[in-house]
Amino acid sequence: MVVVMKPDATDEEIAHVTERVEGVGGEAFVSRGVVRTIIGLVGDIESFHGLNLRTMAGVADVHRISDPFKLVSRQHHRDRSTVWVGADRQVPIGPDTFTFIAGPCAVETPQQTLEAAEMAKAAGATLLRGGAFKPRTSPYAFQGLGVRGLEILADVREVTGLPVVTEVVDARDVSIVVEHADMLQIGTRNMANFGLLQAVGEAGKPVLLKRGMTATIEEWLMAAEYVAQRGNLDVVLCERGIRTFEPSMRNTLDISAVPAVQAISHLPVIIDPSHAAGRKDLVVPLARAGIAVGADGVIVDVHPDPESARCDGPQALLGNDLRALAQACRQLPPVVGREDAAQRIRTVGSAV
Ligand code: PEP
Ligand code: MN
After folding, report:
1. Which of 8, 12, 287, 327 is the most buried (most CB within 10 A)?
2. Domains of the chain
């Protein structure tokens, strides 16, 4: 931490700051510049917070040097992490591979879910997404099939072999979702639901943590820290678009967040171009951009009949669009030094 004194700070004010810092067991290193004095603090940062240094006479500003998040930071864990998903932890999401995740926005019927999963698998996806509990903006919109939806996802996993990622919207549902799913998704609307983050942190399954649509990168990583603090470091971050002034698409995929987050956190980062754009014509171009900037995977909506979809039909892929995405996920990752995760599963089998 660095304390910047005002240009007119007196020697007494400077001495007072150093005494308070030393009083809580810290060390204070004073550098006197031509205009200002700055004081470098070494010691326990939490005890410095308790001093309210910013309110002291003569203090202009206080800067943090280390990240406010620890467990998810690269400051303490240089190498980027791989999170393994599935009953045999067979699907990698991390820096060496590119993981393609697809499925329906919402589970509607067994038939629709199976067809969507088969489309996803045929396109090369290695994980199935699908919402059983849907966090809808309108309370009048379809809220998902709930537990019945989880059962359908588990049945479809039996048939296709694809591990399942599904959203949990309420801390009270975590235990039932964990029974059926391989990975728990926290949606954009719940990124800062700290009780829910703690509950999934204790659930013992990997977590897919979407970025809040109005969250800064630091707030997003602090949310990941809540999960990690409960003993679960198997967290995959998902950039799903942020709110901007631009109304042509639902949200703006913050493509720069991918390398920016990877530089400061060891957690894998994937993108969701479907929920970012809300329109299918942008999904493939955004997915290509995500691969180019180094995303560790992509998650997209597919549906066998988007016109009848009960949720997010306009962004669901099928036919030529899905074929174009499949091709991008196969061909582009090797160009940026990655292996298609499907390839990795076939060649090395399970991780454990
Ligand atoms: C979803 O993936 O189904 C979803 C609701 O996404 P988001 O939370 O990003 O809106
Ligand atoms: Mn959706």
Report:
1. 287
2. 2-63 (3.30.70.1140), 83-351 (3.20.20.70)
